[in-house]
Amino acid sequence: MDKKKTMFSGIQPSGELTLGSYIGAIKNWVSMIEDYDAYYCIVDLHAITVRQEPAALRRRILEQLAQYIACGLDPEKVTLFIQSHVSAHAELAWVLNCYTMFGELSRMTQFKDKSASHADNINGGLFTYPSLMAADILLYQADLVPVGEDQKQHVELCRDIAIRFNNAHGETFKVPEAFIPKVGARIMSLSEPTNKMSKSDKDPSGSVHLLEKPEDIMRKFKRAITDSDTSADCVRFSPSEKPGVSNLIQIYSCASGKSISDIENEFAGRGYGDLKMTVGNAVVETLRPIREETERLLKDKAYLEEVYKMGAKKAEYAAGKTLGKVYRKLGFVSR
Ligand code: ATP
Ligand code: LTN
After folding, report:
1. Is the CB of 207 under 6 A from ligand 1?
2. Is the pTM here over 0.85, yes or no?
3. What is the DSSP letter of 153?
4. Which of 71, 198, 208 is the best mutation target for the ligand 1 pocket, counting ligand atoms within 8 Å of the beta carbon and taking the most?
5. What pLDDT digit, counting tens, does each position of 149-185 carry?
6. Using CA positions, which residue lies closest to atom 23 of ligand 1?
7. Reduced to 3 states, what is the DSSP secondary structure of residue 228?
8. 3-class secondary-structure state, position 262
9. pLDDT digits over 179-236, tens only?
10. What ligand 2 atom has the least distance to the C-alpha of 46?
11. Mind listing the domains of the chain with CATH numbers?
């Protein structure tokens, strides 16, 4: 039997997980676990590139692990772990920093956006964030990296770094590919549909969290921004002309499994009030089992500890092999 391909992805514990990260990333992670040797990480080292409150960070790391499991990532089938538990990530990141150009890092849109939103703390970690992300991926010789659209540029830089290192030292890293879903790669804010839904958004009305109560979810959908079109075919998918409505259609498609054209037909002659209620209900039903299972898991800290310890052990073994190879190629003297 052929060896399974490897998949790696991660999310920062920088806020409450949103419907955006569920649809854009986690949902796809779950759909592929049978076919891949998968590693899913809670990237806490990345999270400290912006200031975090220590007690809240600790709570969110465990909460995120519980949510990964509740979304369907079975720890018996995939490796779930916390980035700071595997020191090879920080070590390889340093090496890759020496193979990443200042100009490349300066062109990253996430760096530009985060520097604008955290103008008082434009630190070195924020700038070299993509080298750490490349280390995450390359340590596991990942073939595929399932992420939302916003992370495509980082995965492309990771490929360039891998190719550069391989050219200098011979075949060392697998060159990975991004896997970006066709629908749902960029879920927009409900209150400002030209901006991405994001967990660190200061406006709480724009994003829906995985653990949010049904009544709060419904309220956010009822207030979602649409437009002033009252025609019979106002429920139409056109992100440039109708960003709010298209976003709702996209969310509904991901929550219900229906195609975009089926949704347009279903809503022919119907208005936005109807659409908002239907999408809100579909999201509530999608998130309900995830919330309930997360709440249950969070009461069992011993189990969560067992999961992240087992994950760290497996990840450490795979990562150690790659790091050893890299150190040898660089000419470091082995211990
Ligand atoms: P932050 O606000 O802290 O930057 P975020 O909410 O933008 O965080 P990330 O942790 O950066 O989310 O992203 C986690 C994963 O989910 C990534 O693969 C990212 O591409 C994906 N993702 C995040 N937000 C969305 C979204 N609105 N639509 C689709 N995918 C998303
Ligand atoms: N930068 C990603 C999180 C991340 C990641 C990774 C994603 C860190 N390391 C490795 C995929 C693979 C983000 O969501 N902002």
Report:
1. no
2. yes
3. H
4. 198
5. 999 999 999 999 999 999 999 999 999 999 999 989 9
6. 21
7. coil
8. helix
9. 999 989 999 999 999 999 998 888 899 999 999 999 999 999 999 999 999 999 999 9
10. 8
11. 5-179+301-330 (3.40.50.620), 204-295 (1.10.240.10)
